[in-house]
Amino acid sequence: MHFQILVEDQSGKKTLDILVPGIIGSPHTFLVHPYKGIGHIPKGLTAKSDAGKRILLDQLPRLLRGYGQAFAHYPDDCPAAVIFVCDLDDKCLKVFRQELDALLNACDPRPKTRFCLAVEEGEAWFLGDIPAVKAAYPKAKDAVLSEYRHDSICGTWELLADAVYHGGASALEARGWRAVGDEKSKWAETITPHMDVLNNASPSFAYFREKLLELVSLTGE
To answer: Which of 53, 124, 178, 208 could form a disulfide with 116 if both were Cys (CB 3.0 to 4.6 A apart)?
Structure first.
């Protein structure tokens, strides 16, 4: 099985480049395609923005149609699937999934696709493995980490920053959004190598892992 994995930013790519091999194993392959933000599903399910801007949801209708056409010509012994990964943020999970499903159903042919949403944010997957956070940041504040409830809507990246960043989220935000993005990439680089993909308390990470394994099992390898 070959996976085309779509993510909304570079920190997501760094995270999945490390985690995915430990889930799918050999001989399965993958490519992670990072975008420059999440955007919105376009009205009429037709991408209208400049593809060069690389905004994920804006381009998703075009991407899924393209993968559907491409995968239709793949040989039976070389199956492929799209894995879409993004933060739920403050969206309604049920409504957002319905919108994504409608987008996929508008494709003819439809590519094999799984939509995997980090609840509330990608940092929830780091916080699903507290030992990994502590391995990367031995001085992380236990009092802050112990307050976290997995996949809760609580300002997830801010809570992680309060635990591991000097001065906490407020100090990081004061440096601007570029600094926030840089720090998120640093978390991906430092925490992810310590993560145990088979033991993670985040339900949304478990869903992501199980969707990959489900697709791998279809190949019989």
So the answer is: 208
Whether pTM > 0.90 for this model: the answer is: yes
Q: Give residue-wise pLDDT tens across range 38-93.
A: 999 888 766 555 667 789 999 999 999 999 999 999 888 889 999 999 999 999 99
Question: Is there a single domain that holds both residue 96 and residue 23?
Answer: yes
Are the C-beta atoms of 39 and 49 separated by less than 8 Å? yes
CATH at 108: 3.40.50
What are the strands, taking DSSP E only, across 112-200?
Answer: 113-118
For residues 46 and 15, state if they share a domain.
Answer: yes
DSSP state, 108?
A: S
Query: Which domain does 135 fall in, by range?
Result: 123-194
Question: Do the beta carbons of residue 114 and residue 24 sit within 8 Å?
Answer: no
Indicate whether 127 and 109 sit together in one domain. no
Q: Could you tell me the two tokens for 105? A: 């159903």
User: At 189, which amino acid appears?
Assistant: E
User: CA nearest 190: which of 152, 153, 122, 135?
Assistant: 135
Residue whose pair of structure tokens reads 């980090």 in the numeric block: 118
Q: Are residues 146 and 114 in the same domain?
A: no
Total count of residues recorded for the chain: 221
